[in-house]
Amino acid sequence: MIKTAITVSLVAQAKGGPFVYWDGLDAAATSAARLGFDAIEIFAPSAASIDRPALHTLLKKHGLVVAAFGTGGGWLVHKWHLTHADPEIRRQAREFIRAIIDLGGEFKAPAIIGSMQGKAEGDVTREQALTWLAEALEDLGAHAKQHGVPLLYEALNRYETNLLNRQLDAAKFFETLQTDNVKLLCDLFHMNIEEISNAETLRACGRHVGHVHFADSNRRAIGFGHTEAAPVIAALQSLGFAGYLSGEILPLPDPEAAAAQTIKVIRQHLPR
Ligand code: LER
Ligand code: MN
Asked: 53: cis peptide before it, omega within 30°?
């Protein structure tokens, strides 16, 4: 069964970014539950910033779970990433993500490596950066496995990284790892820039698909751009995908309307 989620950012530095709710976890959970989402996806400044007992209570109150925790706060707040030239910064990036994996484990939710993958720049060649990325995914993927959750890796478009921009390239990269616990986060916004066909790409990635950022071509809610939802959902169903369609989108025209549009389109294709 495909599940539904919507994003909330607790990171002030992410302002202007593709997250729906911005006014704290309480307000986000109240709105998400009222609209009928299964889960919230949380973008937090750090693992330590989350009040775990309060979050458990909030989720229980609203009948929600956490779909995933983003780790990009490590980049936005500290400018750390996994492929930085400085080994101390690479170490801090890895420990920042490890702490979020442990936080997620407590909620049975995976962590996402998006902007924390970094990019090859300066003296760091792409080959070197990919070697460091593989080492980090190996370590953190195995760490996530101890919690019984995958580690989600997001292939970003060419304007955000020069490492792996296409989903199938990332899936093939995973196959070179010892761990089988790294899964793809397929963000339709990035795919719209890099792939020939969203649906064909998802089918080709098969068992590697772990999570979907359900965004339209312009990063607004699905249906507010020119991406077709039906073939994407049909492809995911043909894979037996049982993860989340998560609305990681701009809060336009306002958070409530963007969230409502997301769930409306999902329910058109996946009636309860
Ligand atoms: C994060 O999920 C994402 O899609 C990135 O574009 C953020 O930099
Ligand atoms: Mn994304």
From this structure: no
pLDDT bracket for residue 272 (50, 70, 90): confident
Q: Which amino acid is at 101?
A: I
Distance from residue 82's CA to the centre of ligand 2 (Å): 17
User: Which residue segment(s) compose the domain that 88 sits in?
Assistant: 3-269
Read off the pTM.
0.98
- Tell me whether residue 226 is exposed, middle or buried, using C-beta atoms within 10 angstroms of its C-beta: 0 to 12, 13 to 18, 19 or more: exposed
Give CA separation, 263 vs 35, 50, 54, 93, 238, in Å. Answer: 7, 26, 26, 34, 21
| E strand spans, 30-177 | 39-43, 65-70, 111-113, 151-154
Residue 203 sits in a domain whose CATH number is: 3.20.20.150
Tokens of 137: 């995914």
Per-residue confidence (pLDDT) for residue 103, from 0 to 100: 99
- % residues pLDDT > 90 (the chain): 100
Distance, in Å, from the CA atom of 187 to the CA atom of 63, rounded to the nearest integer, reads: 26
The pocket around ligand 1, CB under 6 angstroms, is made up of 72, 114-115, 154, 156, 160, 187, 213, 248
